[in-house]
Each structure stands twice: as C-alpha cells, then as structure tokens.
Amino acid sequence: MNRQGEILVLFYSRYGATEKMAQHIARGIEEVNGMQARIRTVPPVSTVCEATEDSIPSEGAPYASLDDLRDCVGLALGSPTRFGNMAAPMKYFIDSTSSLWLGAELAGKPAAVFTSTSSMHGGQETTLLSMMLPLLHHGMLITGIPYSETDLLHTDAGGTPYGASHLAGTDSKKPLTEAEQRLCRALGKRLATTAVKLAS
Ligand SMILES: Cc1cc2nc3c(=O)[nH]c(=O)nc-3n(C[C@H](O)[C@H](O)[C@H](O)COP(=O)(O)O)c2cc1C
C-alpha cells in the first residue's frame, strides 16, 4: 500500500556531506503541496562477517526497511562516491531488494540520484549513473535536473544533469555551496512534482 505523498530519501553518508544533501532534497520535496520526505539511511557494512549493527542507529536518520521502499511514491537515492561507484553499504542494501524486484513493486515510480565526491573530477557522473542501473532494473523512472536550472551552467563545484552532486574537498568538509543547495532542492521538487503527475 503506497503511503500517499511520501517520497523516500535514502542515503548513505560517512562524513555528513551526502546527509546534508538529503536534507536539502527533502526540503525541495516538501515545497510541493501535499508531499512529504521520509529520510532513511543504511548501516555500514563490516569486514567482520559476524558483526551486526543495532537496528536503530545511535544518531541521525533511522535505517531503511524494504517496506519504506515498497510504500513510497518516489525515491531519491544518495551515496558518496567510492572509486567512481556507489558505496558498498548502499549497494548491499539494494542487493537485498530482490523480493521487490520479483513483484515489480517499484516499477513506474519516479527516482532521482545524488552524490558527493572529494575531487572535482573524481567520479560524480559515474557514481550517479551507477546508482541509476539497479533503479532501471526495478523499472523506476529516472528524473534528472534540466538546464533550465541555470546553476548547472555556472557551478564551479557540484551539480549535473544526471542528478545533484557536491564537491566535498580532500578533507570531505567543504559545506554545500549555495548553487549545490539550490540544485538539491530543485531535484527534490522535480521528483515530487513528477510523483504527483504520475498519481493523477
Ligand atoms: C574508499 C573510498 C573511496 C573513495 N573514492 C573516491 C573517488 O573515487 N573520487 C572522489 O572524488 N572521492 C572519493 N572518496 C571520497 C569520498 O567520496 C568523500 O569522502 C565523500 O564524498 C564524502 O561524503 P560523505 O560526507 O557523505 O561521507 C573516496 C573515499 C573512500 C573512503
């Protein structure tokens, strides 16, 4: 049963940059009448196979469940880059979604992606594309950012037509620029608007 008007903002973040992006995307979602953001994260994965995380993190967003995915009317998926790809904890979570794929439970829902990198040419686009692949297998409808968002033309940090991005710097501590924030909000708003149109 879809939770009417609820977009899942699902992210992994180690140093906080992708989490900040998630908050701006959520703001954009909630600018659309009747739409709400449900912010969720995924636990880190450990090289120690026996290790298990508490089911509720000590701080920050709760961990996502498969029901969160099943019940949302749209998805914003975010991960920091790891060697030009999404981070393992996000991939690990996505690899647990076979039951949703078998039932085509996500097919036809709109989705958008966002990422953070340390270096300017360190793989923003490739990471965004890597996150799109499993979403396309699920039959989701990918939305990006159009160049009518003129920040895309002038940004000297993050911001791509494939999704929102952020240049976090070598220490991963650079705050989001004003343009990066606007593009996050624009992506959230576009995703929510698309979900409304698809529902009507
Ligand atoms: C194992 C590993 C691989 C990484 N690979 C890249 C990379 O390919 N390109 C890049 O620009 N940054 C890379 N980084 C830096 C992270 O992307 C950066 O710390 C992240 O964007 C910060 O986001 P967060 O605050 O949400 O964790 C890597 C970091 C780690 C730990």
Mind explaining what this structure looks like?
By secondary structure, this protein is α/β, with parallel strands linked by helices. 36% of the residues lie in helices and 18% in strands. Strands 1, 2, 3, 4, 5, 6 and 7 form a 7-stranded mixed beta sheet that branches. A hairpin with a 2-residue loop joins β3 and β4 (85-86). It is globular, with a radius of gyration of 16 Å. It starts with 5 loop residues before the first strand and ends with a helix. The structure holds flavin mononucleotide (FMN). Flavin mononucleotide (FMN) binds next to α1, β3 and β5.
Topology record:
Layout: E1 6-11, H1 17-30, E2 36-41, H2 66-71, E3 74-82, E4 85-86, H3 88-94, H4 98-102, E5 110-117, H5 124-137, E6 141-142, H6 151-154, E7 164-167, H7 178-199
Parallel strand pairs: 1-2, 1-3, 3-5, 5-6, 5-7
Antiparallel strand pairs: 3-4
Helix pairs in contact: 1-7
The structure holds flavin mononucleotide.
Compact overview of the structure:
By secondary structure, this protein is α/β, with parallel strands linked by helices. The protein has helices at residues 17-30, 66-71, 88-94, 98-102, 124-137, 151-154, 178-199, and strands spanning 6-11, 36-41, 74-82, 85-86, 110-117, 141-142, 164-167. It is built from seven helices and seven strands.
Primary descriptors:
200 residues; alpha/beta; 7-stranded mixed β-sheet; binds flavin mononucleotide
What profile does the largest beta sheet have?
Answer: 7 strands, mixed
Question: What is the subunit arrangement here?
Answer: single chain
Give the low-confidence spans. none
SSE arrangement, N to C: EHEHEEHHEHEHEH
* Helix-residue proportion: 25-40%
Quickly give the structural class. alpha/beta
Radius of gyration: 16 Å
